[in-house]
Queue: 3 jobs
Job 1
Amino acid sequence: MDKNYKDMEREIHEEYKRKLTELKKVKAEKAAVGQVFTKGILPLYVFYILTLGPANGNDIANQISDHTDGHWTPSTGGIYPLLKKMEKQGYAIGVISEEGRLQKIYTLTEEGFAEYERKKDLLFDKIHDAIQVFRSVSKKIYGFDDGFPLSRQDNKNSDNADKQI
Protein backbone atom coordinates (compact mmCIF):
# COMPACT_ATOMS: atom_id res chain seq x y z
CA MET A 1 0.00 0.00 0.00
CA ASP A 2 2.84 2.34 0.83
CA LYS A 3 4.40 1.73 -2.59
CA ASN A 4 1.09 2.46 -4.31
CA TYR A 5 0.84 5.73 -2.42
CA LYS A 6 4.39 6.68 -3.46
CA ASP A 7 3.58 5.87 -7.10
CA MET A 8 0.48 8.06 -6.97
CA GLU A 9 2.45 10.84 -5.32
CA ARG A 10 5.13 10.63 -8.04
CA GLU A 11 2.50 10.66 -10.82
CA ILE A 12 0.79 13.70 -9.31
CA HIS A 13 4.13 15.48 -9.01
CA GLU A 14 5.02 14.66 -12.64
CA GLU A 15 1.62 15.91 -13.83
CA TYR A 16 2.13 19.09 -11.79
CA LYS A 17 5.53 19.66 -13.42
CA ARG A 18 4.07 19.10 -16.93
CA LYS A 19 1.24 21.55 -16.33
CA LEU A 20 3.59 24.11 -14.81
CA THR A 21 5.84 23.84 -17.88
CA GLU A 22 2.82 24.34 -20.17
CA LEU A 23 1.69 27.40 -18.19
CA LYS A 24 5.17 28.92 -18.36
CA LYS A 25 5.24 28.36 -22.12
CA VAL A 26 1.82 30.03 -22.59
CA LYS A 27 2.90 32.93 -20.38
CA ALA A 28 6.11 33.36 -22.40
CA GLU A 29 4.17 33.30 -25.69
CA LYS A 30 1.74 35.94 -24.42
CA ALA A 31 4.65 38.08 -23.25
CA ALA A 32 6.32 37.74 -26.65
CA VAL A 33 3.15 38.86 -28.44
CA GLY A 34 2.83 41.81 -26.08
CA GLN A 35 6.46 42.74 -26.62
CA VAL A 36 5.89 43.07 -30.36
CA PHE A 37 3.66 46.01 -29.50
CA THR A 38 5.43 47.44 -26.44
CA LYS A 39 9.02 47.02 -27.59
CA GLY A 40 8.63 47.45 -31.34
CA ILE A 41 5.49 49.05 -32.64
CA LEU A 42 4.61 51.35 -29.73
CA PRO A 43 7.97 53.17 -29.65
CA LEU A 44 7.90 53.47 -33.45
CA TYR A 45 4.35 54.82 -33.35
CA VAL A 46 5.20 57.31 -30.59
CA PHE A 47 8.04 58.60 -32.77
CA TYR A 48 5.64 58.75 -35.74
CA ILE A 49 3.02 60.75 -33.82
CA LEU A 50 5.71 63.19 -32.71
CA THR A 51 6.82 63.65 -36.35
CA LEU A 52 3.32 65.05 -36.92
CA GLY A 53 3.79 67.68 -34.22
CA PRO A 54 4.12 68.27 -30.48
CA ALA A 55 1.97 66.08 -28.21
CA ASN A 56 1.57 64.82 -24.66
CA GLY A 57 1.06 61.20 -23.64
CA ASN A 58 -2.74 61.41 -23.70
CA ASP A 59 -2.68 62.99 -27.16
CA ILE A 60 -0.43 60.19 -28.40
CA ALA A 61 -2.69 57.44 -26.98
CA ASN A 62 -5.76 59.11 -28.52
CA GLN A 63 -4.10 59.57 -31.91
CA ILE A 64 -2.99 55.92 -32.01
CA SER A 65 -6.55 54.91 -31.14
CA ASP A 66 -7.90 57.15 -33.92
CA HIS A 67 -5.35 55.86 -36.47
CA THR A 68 -6.25 52.24 -35.65
CA ASP A 69 -10.03 52.85 -35.64
CA GLY A 70 -10.12 52.11 -31.91
CA HIS A 71 -8.61 48.63 -32.26
CA TRP A 72 -5.57 49.64 -30.21
CA THR A 73 -5.49 52.26 -27.49
CA PRO A 74 -2.17 51.98 -25.70
CA SER A 75 -2.02 52.80 -22.03
CA THR A 76 -0.46 56.12 -21.09
CA GLY A 77 1.35 54.02 -18.48
CA GLY A 78 3.32 52.59 -21.39
CA ILE A 79 3.66 55.86 -23.30
CA TYR A 80 4.97 58.19 -20.59
CA PRO A 81 8.00 56.01 -19.72
CA LEU A 82 8.83 55.93 -23.44
CA LEU A 83 8.60 59.71 -23.64
CA LYS A 84 10.85 60.10 -20.58
CA LYS A 85 13.35 57.67 -22.10
CA MET A 86 13.25 59.54 -25.42
CA GLU A 87 13.84 62.80 -23.55
CA LYS A 88 16.76 61.32 -21.60
CA GLN A 89 18.31 60.00 -24.84
CA GLY A 90 17.99 63.41 -26.49
CA TYR A 91 15.33 62.33 -29.01
CA ALA A 92 12.59 64.56 -27.59
CA ILE A 93 12.23 67.70 -25.53
CA GLY A 94 9.45 67.93 -22.97
CA VAL A 95 8.15 71.37 -22.01
CA ILE A 96 5.55 72.06 -19.33
CA SER A 97 2.61 73.83 -20.95
CA GLU A 98 1.40 76.91 -19.14
CA GLU A 99 -1.85 77.05 -21.09
CA GLY A 100 -4.85 75.27 -19.58
CA ARG A 101 -3.95 72.48 -17.20
CA LEU A 102 -0.34 71.63 -16.51
CA GLN A 103 0.97 69.03 -18.91
CA LYS A 104 4.25 68.15 -20.52
CA ILE A 105 4.28 68.57 -24.29
CA TYR A 106 6.94 66.62 -26.19
CA THR A 107 8.62 67.63 -29.45
CA LEU A 108 11.13 65.60 -31.46
CA THR A 109 14.68 66.87 -31.75
CA GLU A 110 16.77 66.52 -34.91
CA GLU A 111 18.27 63.40 -33.31
CA GLY A 112 14.71 62.19 -32.70
CA PHE A 113 13.76 62.56 -36.36
CA ALA A 114 16.93 60.65 -37.34
CA GLU A 115 16.17 57.91 -34.78
CA TYR A 116 12.61 57.63 -36.11
CA GLU A 117 13.94 57.02 -39.63
CA ARG A 118 16.42 54.47 -38.27
CA LYS A 119 13.72 52.61 -36.28
CA LYS A 120 11.31 52.74 -39.21
CA ASP A 121 13.92 51.18 -41.48
CA LEU A 122 14.99 48.63 -38.86
CA LEU A 123 11.45 47.40 -38.16
CA PHE A 124 10.17 47.35 -41.74
CA ASP A 125 11.13 43.72 -42.42
CA LYS A 126 9.91 42.54 -39.01
CA ILE A 127 6.51 44.20 -39.46
CA HIS A 128 6.27 42.84 -43.01
CA ASP A 129 7.12 39.33 -41.75
CA ALA A 130 4.50 39.60 -38.98
CA ILE A 131 1.85 40.59 -41.55
CA GLN A 132 2.83 37.59 -43.69
CA VAL A 133 2.48 35.29 -40.66
CA PHE A 134 -1.01 36.65 -39.94
CA ARG A 135 -2.00 36.18 -43.60
CA SER A 136 -0.74 32.59 -43.60
CA VAL A 137 -2.49 31.79 -40.34
CA SER A 138 -5.77 33.34 -41.47
CA LYS A 139 -5.58 31.42 -44.73
CA LYS A 140 -4.81 28.06 -43.10
CA ILE A 141 -7.10 28.30 -40.09
CA TYR A 142 -9.97 30.40 -41.44
CA GLY A 143 -9.67 29.78 -45.17
CA PHE A 144 -9.25 33.43 -46.16
CA ASP A 145 -7.22 33.90 -49.32
CA ASP A 146 -6.83 37.66 -49.05
CA GLY A 147 -6.19 38.32 -45.39
CA PHE A 148 -8.71 38.47 -42.60
CA PRO A 149 -12.29 39.77 -42.91
CA LEU A 150 -12.86 43.13 -41.28
CA SER A 151 -15.33 41.70 -38.77
CA ARG A 152 -17.04 38.49 -37.71
CA GLN A 153 -20.15 39.77 -39.49
CA ASP A 154 -18.22 40.06 -42.76
CA ASN A 155 -17.08 36.48 -42.23
CA LYS A 156 -20.67 35.30 -41.64
CA ASN A 157 -21.83 37.16 -44.74
CA SER A 158 -19.06 35.48 -46.72
CA ASP A 159 -20.08 32.06 -45.36
CA ASN A 160 -23.72 32.73 -46.31
CA ALA A 161 -22.70 33.83 -49.82
CA ASP A 162 -20.73 30.60 -50.25
CA LYS A 163 -23.76 28.55 -49.20
CA GLN A 164 -26.01 30.34 -51.71
CA ILE A 165 -23.75 29.54 -54.65
Job 2
Amino acid sequence: MEELSRALASSFSVSEDLNSTAAPHPRLSQYKSKFSSLEQSEPRQRLLELQKSKRLDYVNHARRLAEDDWTGMESEEEDKKDDEEMDIDTVEKLPKRYANQPLIAKLLAVPVLHISWKGNHMLCGPL
Protein backbone atom coordinates (compact mmCIF):
# COMPACT_ATOMS: atom_id res chain seq x y z
CA MET A 1 0.00 0.00 0.00
CA GLU A 2 2.84 2.35 0.81
CA GLU A 3 4.45 1.58 -2.54
CA LEU A 4 1.24 2.51 -4.28
CA SER A 5 0.95 5.79 -2.39
CA ARG A 6 4.62 6.64 -3.21
CA ALA A 7 4.04 5.83 -6.89
CA LEU A 8 0.94 8.00 -7.00
CA ALA A 9 2.67 10.84 -5.16
CA SER A 10 5.56 10.85 -7.61
CA SER A 11 3.48 10.55 -10.79
CA PHE A 12 0.67 13.01 -10.05
CA SER A 13 1.29 16.72 -10.03
CA VAL A 14 -1.55 19.09 -9.31
CA SER A 15 -1.01 22.77 -9.91
CA GLU A 16 -3.09 25.66 -11.16
CA ASP A 17 -0.83 26.27 -14.16
CA LEU A 18 -1.32 22.85 -15.74
CA ASN A 19 -5.05 22.66 -15.06
CA SER A 20 -6.17 26.11 -16.11
CA THR A 21 -9.20 26.34 -18.37
CA ALA A 22 -7.40 28.76 -20.67
CA ALA A 23 -4.73 26.20 -21.57
CA PRO A 24 -5.31 24.03 -24.64
CA HIS A 25 -6.29 20.45 -24.04
CA PRO A 26 -3.27 18.14 -24.12
CA ARG A 27 -4.85 15.87 -26.73
CA LEU A 28 -6.15 18.62 -29.01
CA SER A 29 -3.25 18.12 -31.39
CA GLN A 30 -4.31 14.51 -31.96
CA TYR A 31 -7.71 15.56 -33.29
CA LYS A 32 -7.12 18.82 -35.08
CA SER A 33 -3.87 19.53 -36.79
CA LYS A 34 -3.29 23.19 -37.42
CA PHE A 35 -2.37 24.16 -40.96
CA SER A 36 -0.23 27.12 -41.71
CA SER A 37 -1.37 29.70 -44.22
CA LEU A 38 1.49 28.71 -46.52
CA GLU A 39 0.06 25.23 -46.98
CA GLN A 40 -3.34 26.70 -47.82
CA SER A 41 -1.96 29.31 -50.19
CA GLU A 42 -0.26 26.77 -52.48
CA PRO A 43 -3.45 24.99 -53.65
CA ARG A 44 -5.23 28.34 -53.90
CA GLN A 45 -2.42 29.72 -56.05
CA ARG A 46 -2.62 26.66 -58.33
CA LEU A 47 -6.39 27.09 -58.62
CA LEU A 48 -6.05 30.77 -59.48
CA GLU A 49 -3.44 29.97 -62.14
CA LEU A 50 -5.72 27.32 -63.63
CA GLN A 51 -8.65 29.75 -63.71
CA LYS A 52 -6.45 32.39 -65.31
CA SER A 53 -5.25 30.03 -68.04
CA LYS A 54 -8.78 28.79 -68.80
CA ARG A 55 -10.06 32.37 -68.99
CA LEU A 56 -7.22 33.29 -71.35
CA ASP A 57 -7.95 30.25 -73.54
CA TYR A 58 -11.63 31.20 -73.65
CA VAL A 59 -10.88 34.82 -74.54
CA ASN A 60 -8.45 33.75 -77.26
CA HIS A 61 -11.02 31.34 -78.67
CA ALA A 62 -13.70 34.06 -78.69
CA ARG A 63 -11.25 36.47 -80.34
CA ARG A 64 -10.46 33.93 -83.07
CA LEU A 65 -14.18 33.39 -83.66
CA ALA A 66 -14.79 37.13 -83.98
CA GLU A 67 -11.81 37.75 -86.26
CA ASP A 68 -12.07 34.42 -88.12
CA ASP A 69 -8.33 33.98 -87.58
CA TRP A 70 -7.38 30.35 -87.04
CA THR A 71 -3.65 30.55 -87.78
CA GLY A 72 -1.55 28.75 -85.22
CA MET A 73 -4.52 26.68 -84.12
CA GLU A 74 -3.06 23.49 -85.60
CA SER A 75 -0.11 23.55 -83.22
CA GLU A 76 -2.45 23.96 -80.25
CA GLU A 77 -4.51 20.99 -81.43
CA GLU A 78 -1.34 18.87 -81.65
CA ASP A 79 -0.43 19.92 -78.12
CA LYS A 80 -3.88 18.94 -76.92
CA LYS A 81 -3.56 15.55 -78.63
CA ASP A 82 -0.28 14.97 -76.80
CA ASP A 83 -1.94 15.96 -73.54
CA GLU A 84 -4.88 13.64 -74.21
CA GLU A 85 -2.54 10.66 -74.44
CA MET A 86 -1.43 11.31 -70.87
CA ASP A 87 -4.93 11.83 -69.48
CA ILE A 88 -6.54 9.13 -67.39
CA ASP A 89 -9.79 7.75 -68.74
CA THR A 90 -12.74 8.80 -66.65
CA VAL A 91 -15.50 6.34 -65.89
CA GLU A 92 -18.89 7.46 -67.11
CA LYS A 93 -21.72 7.44 -64.63
CA LEU A 94 -24.46 4.93 -65.21
CA PRO A 95 -27.82 6.41 -66.15
CA LYS A 96 -30.45 6.61 -63.47
CA ARG A 97 -33.06 4.07 -64.55
CA TYR A 98 -35.97 5.51 -62.64
CA ALA A 99 -35.22 9.20 -62.97
CA ASN A 100 -38.09 11.30 -64.31
CA GLN A 101 -40.47 8.34 -64.45
CA PRO A 102 -43.89 8.44 -62.81
CA LEU A 103 -44.55 6.06 -59.96
CA ILE A 104 -47.21 3.45 -60.71
CA ALA A 105 -50.31 4.25 -58.71
CA LYS A 106 -51.29 0.56 -58.38
CA LEU A 107 -48.38 -0.07 -56.10
CA LEU A 108 -49.42 2.74 -53.81
CA ALA A 109 -53.15 2.01 -53.68
CA VAL A 110 -54.59 1.38 -50.23
CA PRO A 111 -56.84 -1.69 -50.10
CA VAL A 112 -60.53 -0.77 -50.06
CA LEU A 113 -62.20 -1.53 -46.74
CA HIS A 114 -65.90 -1.49 -46.00
CA ILE A 115 -66.25 1.36 -43.55
CA SER A 116 -69.35 2.27 -41.66
CA TRP A 117 -69.61 4.97 -39.06
CA LYS A 118 -71.74 4.62 -36.01
CA GLY A 119 -71.56 7.46 -33.57
CA ASN A 120 -67.94 8.19 -32.70
CA HIS A 121 -66.71 4.68 -33.62
CA MET A 122 -65.54 3.35 -36.93
CA LEU A 123 -66.25 -0.27 -37.86
CA CYS A 124 -64.11 -1.83 -40.58
CA GLY A 125 -64.80 -5.11 -42.28
CA PRO A 126 -64.24 -6.92 -45.56
CA LEU A 127 -66.34 -6.17 -48.63
Job 3
Amino acid sequence: MSDPVEPAGLNEIIGANRARITEMTEVSRLKDVEFELLRVVHPLTRNESTLARFNDLVKELMAHCAEPNFMIGVTGLSRGVGASYVAMNTAVALANDFRRTSLLVECNPHRTPLARMLLPPPEVGLCDYLVQSELHVDDIVYAPGVARMRAIPFGHDAAGAQALCGERMQQLLSAARARYSDRFIVLDLPEVDALQALQPLLDWLDGTVLVVPYGSSSSTTARRAIDVIGSERLVGLVMNRVPTV
Protein backbone atom coordinates (compact mmCIF):
# COMPACT_ATOMS: atom_id res chain seq x y z
CA MET A 1 0.00 0.00 0.00
CA SER A 2 1.49 3.31 -1.02
CA ASP A 3 0.24 5.54 1.79
CA PRO A 4 0.05 4.94 5.55
CA VAL A 5 -3.40 4.35 6.95
CA GLU A 6 -4.96 6.92 9.19
CA PRO A 7 -6.59 6.29 12.56
CA ALA A 8 -10.35 6.69 12.69
CA GLY A 9 -11.88 8.94 15.31
CA LEU A 10 -14.04 7.87 18.21
CA ASN A 11 -17.14 8.90 16.27
CA GLU A 12 -16.34 6.19 13.74
CA ILE A 13 -17.20 3.73 16.50
CA ILE A 14 -20.00 5.45 18.39
CA GLY A 15 -21.40 7.87 15.82
CA ALA A 16 -25.17 7.71 15.51
CA ASN A 17 -25.87 9.24 12.11
CA ARG A 18 -25.72 7.74 8.64
CA ALA A 19 -23.56 10.60 7.36
CA ARG A 20 -20.61 8.77 8.85
CA ILE A 21 -20.79 6.24 6.02
CA THR A 22 -20.05 8.98 3.51
CA GLU A 23 -17.17 10.26 5.61
CA MET A 24 -15.67 6.79 5.83
CA THR A 25 -15.01 6.73 2.09
CA GLU A 26 -12.39 9.46 2.49
CA VAL A 27 -9.42 7.18 3.14
CA SER A 28 -6.37 6.07 1.22
CA ARG A 29 -7.76 3.26 -0.93
CA LEU A 30 -5.98 0.10 -1.99
CA LYS A 31 -5.40 -0.19 -5.72
CA ASP A 32 -6.95 -3.11 -7.59
CA VAL A 33 -3.57 -4.80 -7.98
CA GLU A 34 -3.01 -4.51 -4.23
CA PHE A 35 -6.36 -6.17 -3.55
CA GLU A 36 -5.31 -9.06 -5.78
CA LEU A 37 -1.85 -9.42 -4.21
CA LEU A 38 -3.35 -9.41 -0.71
CA ARG A 39 -6.09 -11.88 -1.77
CA VAL A 40 -8.78 -9.42 -0.71
CA VAL A 41 -12.05 -9.53 -2.62
CA HIS A 42 -13.29 -6.40 -4.37
CA PRO A 43 -16.05 -5.65 -6.90
CA LEU A 44 -13.68 -5.61 -9.89
CA THR A 45 -11.75 -8.73 -8.92
CA ARG A 46 -10.76 -11.23 -11.59
CA ASN A 47 -11.64 -14.01 -9.15
CA GLU A 48 -15.39 -13.70 -9.54
CA SER A 49 -16.13 -17.11 -8.02
CA THR A 50 -14.42 -16.18 -4.73
CA LEU A 51 -16.28 -12.88 -4.60
CA ALA A 52 -19.54 -14.73 -5.20
CA ARG A 53 -18.82 -17.16 -2.37
CA PHE A 54 -18.23 -14.37 0.12
CA ASN A 55 -21.31 -12.50 -1.06
CA ASP A 56 -23.31 -15.69 -0.56
CA LEU A 57 -21.88 -16.09 2.93
CA VAL A 58 -22.89 -12.52 3.78
CA LYS A 59 -26.43 -13.19 2.54
CA GLU A 60 -26.65 -16.31 4.70
CA LEU A 61 -25.45 -14.40 7.75
CA MET A 62 -27.88 -11.56 7.09
CA ALA A 63 -30.73 -14.06 6.85
CA HIS A 64 -29.69 -15.93 9.99
CA CYS A 65 -29.16 -12.98 12.33
CA ALA A 66 -32.35 -11.27 13.44
CA GLU A 67 -30.74 -7.98 14.48
CA PRO A 68 -30.45 -5.10 11.97
CA ASN A 69 -26.70 -5.41 12.30
CA PHE A 70 -24.77 -8.37 13.61
CA MET A 71 -21.59 -9.33 15.39
CA ILE A 72 -20.06 -12.66 14.42
CA GLY A 73 -16.85 -14.53 15.07
CA VAL A 74 -14.81 -16.59 12.62
CA THR A 75 -12.68 -19.47 13.87
CA GLY A 76 -10.73 -22.29 12.26
CA LEU A 77 -10.74 -25.99 12.95
CA SER A 78 -7.00 -25.61 13.56
CA ARG A 79 -4.33 -22.98 13.05
CA GLY A 80 -3.45 -22.21 9.44
CA VAL A 81 -6.71 -23.25 7.77
CA GLY A 82 -7.45 -19.74 6.49
CA ALA A 83 -9.90 -18.50 9.12
CA SER A 84 -8.29 -15.04 9.20
CA TYR A 85 -8.57 -14.88 5.41
CA VAL A 86 -12.29 -15.71 5.70
CA ALA A 87 -12.81 -13.16 8.48
CA MET A 88 -11.04 -10.43 6.50
CA ASN A 89 -12.96 -11.04 3.30
CA THR A 90 -16.29 -11.35 5.09
CA ALA A 91 -15.71 -7.87 6.54
CA VAL A 92 -14.69 -6.59 3.10
CA ALA A 93 -17.73 -8.16 1.41
CA LEU A 94 -19.99 -6.52 3.98
CA ALA A 95 -18.43 -3.11 3.32
CA ASN A 96 -18.69 -3.53 -0.46
CA ASP A 97 -22.37 -2.66 -0.10
CA PHE A 98 -22.59 1.14 0.17
CA ARG A 99 -25.46 0.81 2.67
CA ARG A 100 -23.23 -0.94 5.22
CA THR A 101 -20.00 -0.44 7.10
CA SER A 102 -17.90 -3.11 8.75
CA LEU A 103 -15.44 -3.41 11.59
CA LEU A 104 -12.88 -6.23 11.71
CA VAL A 105 -11.63 -6.95 15.23
CA GLU A 106 -8.54 -9.13 15.57
CA CYS A 107 -8.72 -11.46 18.56
CA ASN A 108 -6.08 -13.71 17.04
CA PRO A 109 -2.42 -13.29 18.06
CA HIS A 110 -1.01 -14.94 14.94
CA ARG A 111 0.01 -13.05 11.80
CA THR A 112 -3.06 -12.35 9.71
CA PRO A 113 -3.91 -10.75 6.35
CA LEU A 114 -4.68 -7.50 8.18
CA ALA A 115 -1.04 -7.20 9.23
CA ARG A 116 -0.06 -6.92 5.57
CA MET A 117 -2.67 -4.22 4.91
CA LEU A 118 -1.76 -1.86 7.75
CA LEU A 119 1.43 -0.05 6.77
CA PRO A 120 3.30 1.15 8.68
CA PRO A 121 2.54 -1.48 11.35
CA PRO A 122 0.24 -0.07 14.04
CA GLU A 123 1.86 0.83 17.34
CA VAL A 124 -1.12 -0.17 19.48
CA GLY A 125 -4.14 -2.41 19.10
CA LEU A 126 -6.88 -4.25 20.93
CA CYS A 127 -4.79 -5.94 23.63
CA ASP A 128 -3.01 -2.70 24.44
CA TYR A 129 -6.34 -0.89 24.77
CA LEU A 130 -7.79 -3.55 27.08
CA VAL A 131 -5.08 -3.11 29.72
CA GLN A 132 -3.90 0.47 29.22
CA SER A 133 -6.58 2.82 30.49
CA GLU A 134 -4.90 5.87 28.95
CA LEU A 135 -5.64 4.56 25.45
CA HIS A 136 -8.85 5.60 23.71
CA VAL A 137 -10.85 3.86 21.03
CA ASP A 138 -9.60 6.24 18.35
CA ASP A 139 -6.04 5.11 19.14
CA ILE A 140 -6.70 1.55 17.97
CA VAL A 141 -9.10 1.87 15.01
CA TYR A 142 -7.41 1.94 11.60
CA ALA A 143 -8.44 2.28 7.96
CA PRO A 144 -7.13 -0.73 5.99
CA GLY A 145 -7.72 0.86 2.59
CA VAL A 146 -11.22 -0.48 1.98
CA ALA A 147 -14.10 1.99 1.73
CA ARG A 148 -16.54 1.87 4.65
CA MET A 149 -14.37 -0.59 6.57
CA ARG A 150 -12.36 -0.13 9.74
CA ALA A 151 -10.14 -2.56 11.64
CA ILE A 152 -8.78 -3.06 15.13
CA PRO A 153 -5.50 -5.03 15.06
CA PHE A 154 -4.59 -7.46 17.83
CA GLY A 155 -1.88 -5.31 19.37
CA HIS A 156 1.26 -6.09 21.34
CA ASP A 157 0.53 -6.21 25.08
CA ALA A 158 0.45 -9.90 26.00
CA ALA A 159 -1.46 -9.17 29.19
CA GLY A 160 -4.33 -7.86 27.11
CA ALA A 161 -4.98 -11.29 25.63
CA GLN A 162 -6.23 -12.34 29.05
CA ALA A 163 -8.76 -9.50 28.99
CA LEU A 164 -10.63 -10.51 25.82
CA CYS A 165 -13.56 -11.59 27.99
CA GLY A 166 -13.34 -8.60 30.32
CA GLU A 167 -15.64 -5.66 30.91
CA ARG A 168 -13.64 -3.20 28.78
CA MET A 169 -13.89 -5.56 25.80
CA GLN A 170 -17.62 -5.98 26.29
CA GLN A 171 -18.09 -2.21 26.49
CA LEU A 172 -16.09 -1.71 23.29
CA LEU A 173 -18.15 -4.22 21.32
CA SER A 174 -21.44 -2.98 22.75
CA ALA A 175 -20.65 0.62 21.78
CA ALA A 176 -19.57 -0.40 18.30
CA ARG A 177 -22.78 -2.28 17.72
CA ALA A 178 -25.48 -0.37 19.56
CA ARG A 179 -24.58 3.15 18.48
CA TYR A 180 -23.97 2.61 14.78
CA SER A 181 -26.90 0.86 13.15
CA ASP A 182 -25.12 0.24 9.84
CA ARG A 183 -21.99 -1.30 11.35
CA PHE A 184 -21.44 -5.05 11.05
CA ILE A 185 -18.71 -6.49 13.25
CA VAL A 186 -16.51 -9.48 12.42
CA LEU A 187 -14.17 -10.94 15.04
CA ASP A 188 -11.15 -12.89 13.83
CA LEU A 189 -10.97 -15.53 16.56
CA PRO A 190 -8.16 -17.97 17.37
CA GLU A 191 -8.49 -21.63 16.42
CA VAL A 192 -11.10 -23.86 18.07
CA ASP A 193 -8.71 -25.36 20.63
CA ALA A 194 -8.10 -21.88 22.05
CA LEU A 195 -11.81 -21.03 22.36
CA GLN A 196 -12.35 -22.90 25.61
CA ALA A 197 -11.03 -19.88 27.49
CA LEU A 198 -13.14 -17.45 25.43
CA GLN A 199 -16.63 -18.79 26.11
CA PRO A 200 -17.91 -15.46 27.55
CA LEU A 201 -16.77 -13.71 24.37
CA LEU A 202 -18.65 -16.23 22.23
CA ASP A 203 -21.79 -15.55 24.27
CA TRP A 204 -21.70 -11.87 23.25
CA LEU A 205 -21.77 -12.73 19.56
CA ASP A 206 -24.75 -13.45 17.34
CA GLY A 207 -22.95 -16.53 16.12
CA THR A 208 -19.71 -18.09 14.96
CA VAL A 209 -18.53 -19.28 11.55
CA LEU A 210 -16.30 -22.37 11.48
CA VAL A 211 -13.66 -22.71 8.75
CA VAL A 212 -12.74 -26.29 7.84
CA PRO A 213 -9.94 -27.27 5.43
CA TYR A 214 -11.11 -29.28 2.44
CA GLY A 215 -10.35 -32.99 2.59
CA SER A 216 -8.08 -32.96 5.63
CA SER A 217 -10.36 -33.23 8.66
CA SER A 218 -12.50 -36.03 9.99
CA SER A 219 -16.16 -35.79 10.92
CA THR A 220 -15.16 -36.58 14.51
CA THR A 221 -12.84 -33.56 14.61
CA ALA A 222 -15.52 -31.33 13.12
CA ARG A 223 -18.11 -32.52 15.64
CA ARG A 224 -15.72 -31.85 18.51
CA ALA A 225 -15.18 -28.32 17.19
CA ILE A 226 -18.93 -27.74 17.02
CA ASP A 227 -19.23 -28.95 20.61
CA VAL A 228 -16.64 -26.37 21.69
CA ILE A 229 -18.40 -23.58 19.80
CA GLY A 230 -21.89 -24.77 20.71
CA SER A 231 -24.29 -25.91 18.01
CA GLU A 232 -26.65 -23.07 18.93
CA ARG A 233 -23.87 -20.57 18.20
CA LEU A 234 -22.82 -22.01 14.84
CA VAL A 235 -24.16 -19.84 12.01
CA GLY A 236 -21.95 -20.93 9.14
CA LEU A 237 -19.53 -23.60 7.97
CA VAL A 238 -16.93 -22.62 5.36
CA MET A 239 -15.00 -25.29 3.47
CA ASN A 240 -11.74 -23.58 2.58
CA ARG A 241 -9.18 -24.45 -0.09
CA VAL A 242 -11.61 -26.40 -2.22
CA PRO A 243 -9.77 -27.37 -5.42
CA THR A 244 -10.94 -25.61 -8.57
CA VAL A 245 -11.89 -27.63 -11.64
